[in-house]
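Feature request disguised as a bug: please show the residue count (264) next to Phosphatase PAP2 family protein in the output. Example input:
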Amino acid sequence: MDTTGATVTRRRSWRSRRLDRDHSLGLRLSLATAAAFLVLIPFALLALLVLGAWSPLLRLDASIADAFHGYAQDHPAWVAVMTVWTHVFGPGPLRVAAAAVAVWLFRRGASRLAAWVVVTMIAGGLLGALLKLLVGRDRPDLLEPVARAAGYSFPSGHALNAALAAGVLLLVFLPFARDSRAGRIMLWAAALLVTVVTGLSRIALGVHWTSDVVGGWVLGAAVVAATSAAFATWRSGSGRPSARPLREGVEPELADQRPEGGRA
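Example output, currently without the count:
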């Protein structure tokens, strides 16, 4: 029996499924996985530079830390604002907010989406904590510090959890603004504001290096991208149409569901 033709057919069939728009599960999964991997590459490179104590990076971190510290010492009101912000949008409050949204989703009938929210927040938090222990980077040691924090420095937990929570909440609520350009802009602006200012507050208070914060942002984006790809797998496997997450969220049907409807 000639098995060569069958083998070629199977190989061609696999590739054709990857490119077939009518049966594009493989293509969507490949693109989503590649996107998550590409986001993770900058974090891996940054982590290697931190572990290797790359001099240009250390000098850049030190110069930025000195500039922010000098400004903080001369502007106590700035320190007060950054202190309030870093507590209000710290990991604890953001996790509570995400948990509240997960409960709301579950009661609305979107149990799988609620699980995605919880899994994303937990996976990102655990990964960040593990990487802190593995890298073991010390926090900035400044003269006359305006704030103090315990634990290791890389990646920044505040920056990581801000990126996780902002990304998750953005992708959950985008369906409600899918027909409103202004609404989408507001949601994106709010997500970016929380993510960026929370990270900057850690640098402003002198408790993190800039590379710690950038690492937290990138890792958070990578985790959200990876779990979003996994959620897209479920959607495709259950026969639901593909979504445009950056425009209409990970589950566009959410805006059409009624709270008293059946669970997803």
